[in-house]
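Notebook p. 47: complex prediction with guanosine-5'-diphosphate.
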Amino acid sequence: MNPIGPPILAAMKSPDDFAAGEAPSAGSTARVPELSFFFPAHNEEENIEALVAEALAALPSLAERFEIIAVDDGSRDRTPELADRLAAEHANVVRVVHHEANRGYGAALQSGFQAARYSLVCFTDGDRQFRVADLGRLLEVLGRPEQPDIVVGYRLRRADPFVRILYARLYRVALRLCFGLGARDVDCACKLFRRDALHGVRLESGGAFLSAELLIKLRARGRRIAQVGIPHYPRTAGQASGANPRVILRAVRDFWRLRILLWANRRAALGRGASVLGPAVGAETL
Ligand SMILES: Nc1nc2c(ncn2[C@@H]2O[C@H](COP(=O)(O)OP(=O)(O)O)[C@@H](O)[C@H]2O)c(=O)[nH]1
Ligand SMILES: [Mg+2]
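Predicted complex, structure tokens below:
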């Protein structure tokens, strides 16, 4: 028996539908007109200022107009006040979304998408394991003749403990078997989207499963996803919590909830959750 099941298979095509790209050199592309960049931050007081400085330095060569959105996910350190200060210092460029309490990685990404206003939307994590300038690699692939709707990174050499790499391999197999999802590195937190491609997508997961849920639902809508290798760096400040048992259990629960809902009623399952996009801002009001 095919473990994927006909409803998803029909829309998701084969794993090979993901076009793996060679990693082009960063910054080799023309500037795009506008770009929203956001990052989730949970207790990232040691990273947030350097990340925003890095983004302010890198984004002008990638986009003519850009915004930087910090999503403070109920941090209990100085992240909220540092984020507010950065937004005040760079009033038209840096914005902050605060969660009053910690809601989880997926909820933080959802808030980033909601807040993003421009026609291209991208994110990295807030822990500086990616370089903002490497978003140029994603933009270069987005501009290729195949016209992908989404470009997702895969970590060329993942700079995390071995146990994380092992979990990621098992997760990849599970996603392929249960959802037919052929992404090389679903959790690579370096992704770029045409805003139009996100229309109609609704998401439910508040935790780490959101990255997979997003790609599964985009594939189900027939969106073209390309992949490109991205350098990854060790976390040098702050604490990683992505492998906490609570985080893993929540992801497992969300994984099976979506799988079972899709089996029960694919159409209803795809329509559950909150719309990923907030309102766009017309050019005249910018
Ligand atoms: N794990 C976790 N990360 C969060 C949460 N909310 C926001 N984040 C951010 O998500 C990113 C990835 O977190 P990290 O702990 O480094 O996960 P890992 O890279 O998978 O180990 C960082 O930018 C965090 O600040 C949360 O509730 N849990
Ligand atoms: Mg990390």
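Notes: Residues 40-42, 44, 73, 102, 104-105, 108, 125-127, 235, 240-242, 247 surround guanosine-5'-diphosphate (ligand 1) (CB under 6 Å). Residues 6-272 form a domain with the Spore Coat Polysaccharide Biosynthesis Protein SpsA; Chain A fold (CATH 3.90.550.10).
Next step: compare against the earlier run before touching the bench.
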